[in-house]
Amino acid sequence: MTAPDLAEVWVYLAQKPLTGLTLTLCAYVCGDWLYEKSGRNPLLNPVPIAIILIAGLLWLTDIPYRDYFEGAQFVHFLLGPATVALAVPLYQQLDTLKKSGTALLAGVLLGSATAAGCAYGFAYLGGASTETLLSIAPKSVTAPIAMGIAEQLGGLPSLTAVLVILTGITGAVFGPLVLNLARIKDWRARGLAMGVGAHGIGTSRALQVNAVAGAFAGLAMGLNGLATAILIPLIFALVF
Amino acid sequence: MIIRYLALILICQLIGETVQVASAIPVPGPVIGMVILFTGLLFNRGLPSDLRDTAGGLLRHLALLFVPAGVGVMLHVPRLADEWWPVFLAIVPGTLIAIVITALVMERLGRATIREEDKV
Question: How close does chain B come to A14, measured CA to CA in Å?
């Protein structure tokens, strides 16, 4: 086979949705293998590993993100059904959730305000541009809600999606370490904190570690989204 | 993965999306769908084991589903390089402070209701 033929094959493959989909799954399998191999070390979270592998490969091969997403959208689409499916662990932990009602609500509301306040405040102090500021405020909220909030405020939804995922990765990777430092020995509190701070990626991690933590994380993610979606636009309307 | 329950989950999402568009509330359709499924389970007074398995299948690798949007980081490299300091401050200390505050509030207020299985 000669070089031009190979290039043609490559051009053909790069445009196929199958390529983006296969690449996504293979990169995640690599990340997950490393994660399992390390004894589920939070520092080797499969999400950043997969993202770095894919982004690196796309950059090296000059494939635009849009072409990659043609295939990867099938994985992306499952975020919706997976969010609905969180009703199941919630229902399984119904008794625990009911017993901790007040503590849970107080934790979510304070955590939600802290997450949005710190995000906006720190970015402002660091000298962020207006667009970045408006895109970063809802970063601890699950991606679809956060993108909606950013759009309402006048931020960039696609930038928000990236900031949300960077936040989730940070929370999933370093969250367990800071929770250990703070000597939190309550699975409910650990799960709730991961859900408020690191949305779905934190919830995914919590579900793997402990069932109680997983249910609290899922609920916290939903309630945080709800609280932030109502509070941020309201505060912005009053202050600015 | 049982098709019947996958269909049920999709129906909940579809109703959720419809409610969201019709009412213009700022909560995304899938979250409303989650509330609908949860309410359904409360009325049903029991969780079918096949639904449990189907939901478990979707959630086992929840993190994978964030990868395609995460790869979008490549579109924002110039901005992130220009503004790395404020973005770093907001994301790293910002997120970790929020995690610790949430956990401390829940732990302190939840001391009265903790059960053996909740303890680490």
Answer: 16
Q: Does A73 touch chain B (CB under 8 A)?
A: yes
Q: How much is the average pLDDT of A149-178?
A: 90
Together in a domain, B49 and B9: yes
Q: Rounded mean pLDDT of B74-81?
A: 92
The pLDDT value given to residue A4: 60
Whether A32 and A45 have beta carbons less than 8 Å apart is answered as no
Residues B1 and B56 in one domain: yes
Domain assignment of residue A31, given as a range: 3-77
- ipTM entry: 0.89
The answer to whether residues A95 and A180 belong to one domain is: yes
Same domain (yes/no): A62, A106: no
In terms of domains, do A151 and A187 share one? Answer: yes
B65 located within any domain: no
| Amino acid found at A154 | G
The mean of the pLDDT values for chain A is 89
User: Considering its fold, how many domains does chain A have in total?
Assistant: 2
Nearest Cα to A166, choosing from B87, B62, B120, B103? B87
Partner-chain contact B69 A96, CB within 8 Å: no
Are residues B13 and B45 part of one domain?
yes
- In this prediction, residue A163 carries a pLDDT of 94
Give percent above pLDDT 70 in chain A: 98
Does any domain span residue B83?
yes
For residues B4 and B54, membership in a common domain is answered with: yes
A-chain CB neighbours of B99 within 8 Å are: 111, 171, 175, 178-179, 193-194, 196-198
Is A33 in the B-facing interface, judged by CB distances under 8 Å?
Answer: no
Give the nearest partner residue to B26 out of A122, A148, A203, using CB atoms. Answer: A148
Residue B94's Cβ-side half-sphere holds a number of Cα atoms within 13 Å equal to 32
